[in-house]
Design goal:
Blueprint: H1 3-13, H2 25-54, H3 56-60, H4 70-88, E1 95-96, E2 103-104, H5 116-124, H6 130-157, H7 165-180, H8 183-187, H9 192-199, H10 201-214, H11 217-232, H12 236-256, H13 261-290, H14 300-303, H15 325-328, H16 343-349, H17 360-375, H18 381-389, H19 404-420, H20 426-449, H21 458-480, H22 487-503, H23 520-528, E3 534-538, H24 546-550, H25 565-571, H26 580-583, E4 587-593, E5 603-607, E6 613-618, E7 625-628, E8 630-634, H27 637-644, E9 654-658, E10 680-687, E11 690-697, E12 701-708, E13 713-717, E14 720-722, E15 725-727, E16 731-736, E17 740-748, H28 751-778
Parallel strand pairs: 3-4, 8-9
Antiparallel strand pairs: 1-2, 4-6, 5-6, 7-12, 9-15, 10-11, 11-17, 12-16, 13-14, 13-17, 15-16
Helix pairs in contact: 2-6, 2-7, 4-5, 6-7, 6-9, 6-10, 6-19, 7-19, 7-22, 10-11, 10-12, 11-13, 12-13, 13-28, 16-19, 16-21, 17-19, 20-21, 21-22
């Protein structure tokens, strides 16, 4: 603050006239860094523009994505709408009362409830228009490309002789386009959770790479934080694919420097420990829930469904050979992603520097081979070994999604190969390009000829191989002119044109996919009815998960791989609408297609003002809660299922209890011992996670709820906690021990969620304290 101090600062900040140069090189370095950052930021903006071009229906408002709506509109949109509405109402949605007569919500990792990006969107746009879902897809595709761009830029900067910016930025840009428009993202446009998890792979890999190369605990913690964030996006299989990429890279480093194995193992352990801690709020409840679903462990034929066939490897050469998209696909196997990442990408990836024995390119080749072997599923023994040995792998289907790993590896290698072009002779480029053309044509023709029915699709083979050959030859011609001023730009344009041209038209939907949710009159009528009440859907015009978007309650919903298996078994065996087991579900209203009654005369039409559907009242629907004196106690689920399907079983007068569902054995109450007197039940409060019922009973009874049983539900009678029993195979009941008026409070209070929340908060707090201490030391 003195004149002398100001003079000293001025000498540092301004050039000396006598020396004619900067006295503080850091200031000049800062300016150079700003210029470099400006170029990178402009390139990232260009990637955003490229994503807007690829998803032109969303950008221009001329259509929708994906084709047919897919899971994005039928499952994810109503699921996220339920979360957004719950948060807007000030409650944390641990339980989903809208579908399947009740089911865990936060424990279903597909909900993405704690994923930071979704949380921000839920809070800012609680109404959640469908356009927001589309833009979330576009944004995550851009996030994937941005991560790949930053990763390749860093890898090129670490090179012994880093390429000039004229080559480095186009190389990173081409790699980014190759990843963000690869087959995983194109095929799964309708699976936002798959796109979201996959988008984090480049970022997490970059942090792990820096952590292991620099032996930095800070970077490894950052990798764990990114990996945990990706896991919160809600797709277990893609999370496992990310774990495989990170774990194999850690093992690669261990093999490369065995003398530092303890330190490297500790750093890798830190990555997974932080990731587990960050995602525990979702993962711990999900692990508990998995045991109550049909996906606890699949038989191997189910787990191997949607494997990539050997012939499908030709899809890496051209996606047109077997037909692109759901509309054009003609091969006899179930449509899966074929892994196309661009013909120009293949050309450039083959030019990467593979000479170094323990260099990153060789690891990427290993990762690509591993991903392919897993994607081939039942066609190789690798998938079966993982099914038998890796925890959680037996719960997953669609092995073909592991083409994410070769797509990622090819994209990075393409960036490294393009940046290396100035040092390669033209004959090497032409040799690889022509060899790739010949090998690709042979592979494509051979694979096409082995598929039954190929004779009717010669045009697909011609278009696919012809376009792939032309792209490869054009790319080789451009790459061979390595001294040309515009060579990098030409290769980037060619790579982008290849990917956009092959994919931008595949998942375009011309018709509004949200039509199944556009029944405002029906929604208003049902909301006016006194509740709680449930509906049943017998209409093709009403979306199966519409109840979740509108705050209604449905006994069913769209097919969900994580639905509770006991309830799904019960629902699949209730018989026709109007049967006693069906009426037990409290389905008071049925939505049916126009003029098509859902059952017999017990279903009375009550609302017919919608042009597509009618609403019927089920006059035999039982109340949500009932008093029962007669009880049958069983010890296995099979016994309970048999008991409720006995010819003389009446859910209005008898309850079947599972003795193993609570710590205390359920008391047996005999109907003959029950005195006559007033018997009434009514709700005094009702919310998804908690409700209160007042019961007046003349003697010991069971209060039976047509609410799905799940661990974590607790009950109190007059302030004293009492066991919650599994009743009638899939539902809940509590025992009222004496006559009189009693207040029953039931609340969803899962211990698994509280444990996961504690682990996540502890992990974040530890990271915050650690990071703050490091910053303080630097300061």
């Amino acid at each position: 603050c003195t004149v002398r101090g100001w003079h000293a600062c001025a000498r540092i900040a301004w050039p000396s006239r006598r020396r004619g140069r900067w006295l503080a090189p850091s200031v000049g370095g800062l300016g150079q860094a700003v210029r470099h950052a400006r170029a990178d930021l402009c390139t990232l903006a260009g990637l955003a523009l490229l994503a807007g071009v690829f998803f032109w229906p969303v950008t221009l408002g001329l259509g929708w994505i994906p084709r047919g709506g897919g899971d994005l509109v039928s499952f994810l949109w109503p699921t996220y709408s339920y979360a957004a509405e719950a948060l807007r109402a000030g409650r944390l949605p641990l339980w989903n009362h809208s579908l399947y007569s009740g089911a865990p919500f936060a424990a279903d990792n597909q909900s993405g409830l704690f994923y930071p990006i979704y949380l921000l969107v839920f809070l800012l746009r609680p109404g959640l228009p469908y356009q927001v879902m589309e833009w979330l897809v576009v944004g995550h595709v851009w996030l994937a490309g941005a991560g790949l761009f930053v990763l390749v830029r860093r890898l090129l900067a670490e090179a012994g002789q880093p390429p000039a910016r004229r080559w480095a930025i186009p190389a990173a840009l081409a790699a980014a386009a190759a990843y963000m428009f690869s087959d995983v993202f194109v095929t799964h446009v309708g699976n936002l959770n798959i796109v979201a998890v996959s988008a984090w792979l480049p970022w997490v890999f970059l942090a792990l790479h820096r952590g292991l190369e620099q032996r930095s605990a800070g970077w490894c913690a950052a990798a764990g934080l990114g990996f945990g964030t990706a896991a919160l996006a809600g797709h277990a299989q893609m999370t496992l694919a990310l774990a495989a990429a990170l774990g194999l890279y850690g093992l690669w480093h261990l093999a490369r420097t065995p003398r530092q194995a303890p330190r490297l193992a500790a750093l890798l352990g830190l990555v997974f420990a932080v990731a587990m801690g960050v995602s525990a709020v979702s993962v711990v409840p999900a692990v508990e829930m998995m045991g109550y679903t049909a996906r606890a462990r699949l038989a191997y034929p189910e787990a191997a469904e949607y494997s990539l066939p050997w012939a499908g490897l030709a899809g890496f050469v051209s996606p047109l050979i077997f037909g692109r998209g759901a509309a054009g696909f003609w091969a006899p196997w179930a449509r899966v992603g074929l892994g196309y990442a661009g013909a120009v990408t293949l050309l450039l990836a083959g030019l990467a520097p593979f000479r170094a024995r323990w260099g990153l390119p060789r690891y990427l080749l290993l990762l690509s081979a591993f991903g392919l072997l897993v994607a081939l599923g039942a066609n190789t023994p690798v998938h079966r070994l993982l099914y038998l040995a890796v925890p959680g792998f037996a719960s997953l289907r669609v092995p073909a999604r592991f083409v994410l790993l070769p797509d990622f590896a090819l994209a990075v290698l393409a960036g490294l190969g393009l940046a290396r072009l100035p040092t390669l002779p033209a004959r090497r480029v032409w040799a690889w390009g022509l060899g790739l053309v010949a090998g690709g044509l042979v592979l494509a023709a051979t694979a096409w000829a082995t598929v039954p029915g190929h004779q009717a699709h010669t045009r697909a083979l011609g278009w696919g191989t012809g376009l792939a050959g032309a792209l490869l030859l054009a790319g080789a011609a451009a790459a061979a002119r390595r001294s040309g001023r515009w060579t990098p730009a030409v290769l980037v344009v060619l790579a982008c044109a290849d990917l956009v041209g092959h994919g931008a038209w595949v998942e375009v939907e011309r018709n509004d996919p949200t039509r199944g949710f556009q029944h405002p009159g029906v929604v208003a009528y049902l909301r006016e009815q006194p509740g709680p009440l449930r509906i049943d859907n017998a209409s093709g015009a009403w979306s199966p998960d519409a109840a979740a978007r509108f705050g209604l309650e449905d006994i069913g919903g769209i097919s969900n791989p994580l639905a509770l298996s006991a309830y799904q078994t019960y629902l699949g065996a209730v018989g026709p609408r109007g049967s006693p087991l069906y009426n037990f579900l409290n389905a008071q209203f049925v939505i049916a297609d126009k003029g098509q009654p859902p059952g017999d005369s017990a279903f009375v039409p009550v609302f017919a003002e919608d042009p597509q559907v009618d609403v019927y009242l089920n006059t035999l629907a039982q109340p949500r809660v009932r008093l029962v004196q007669a009880v049958e106690v069983v010890t296995r689920g099979e016994q309970a299922f048999g008991a409720i399907h006995a010819p003389d079983f009446d859910p209005e007068g008898v309850v079947v209890l599972d003795a193993t569902s609570a710590a205390a054995r359920p008391p047996v109450v005999l109907a003959s011992a029950t005195a006559a007197g007033e018997r009434t039940l009514f709700y005094t409060a009702y919310a998804p996670e908690a409700y209160r019922v007042v019961a007046r009973t003349p003697g010991p009874s069971y209060v039976v709820f047509s609410e799905v049983w799940y661990p974590g539900w607790r009950a109190w009678i007059d302030g004293v906690e009492t066991p919650v029993y599994r009743a009638n195979f899939a539902f809940r009941a509590v025992h009222v021990p004496a006559a009189g008026e009693h207040t029953i409070v039931m609340r969803f209070d899962p211990a698994a969620w509280k444990l996961g929340l504690a682990m996540t908060l502890l992990t974040l707090a530890t990271l915050g304290v650690w990071g703050g201490a490091r910053l303080a030391r630097r300061a």
